[in-house]
Predict the 3D structure of the following.
Amino acid sequence: MQVVAVELTARLRDDIEAIESHLSGLGELDLRALEMKLPRNASAGSAEMVTLVLVYREMEKRARA
């Protein structure tokens, strides 16, 4: 059972990194449009909430640059 959990966690990390990479390649307008389309009341831990957090992190990273 632990092996399965480790494998799933590794795959999840890979998927999150792929989303981060994709978001970093988006233009500012596309990033903002994606932000507007994602629900603000998504369940904690849901794909929508994780994506929204990643969008906010990318926007924050760009604002600091």
Q: What stands out?
A: The chain has a mean pLDDT of 95. Residues 2-25 form the longest helix (24 residues). Residues 16 and 22 are 10 Å apart (CA to CA). The helical segments are 2-25, 28-37, 47-64.
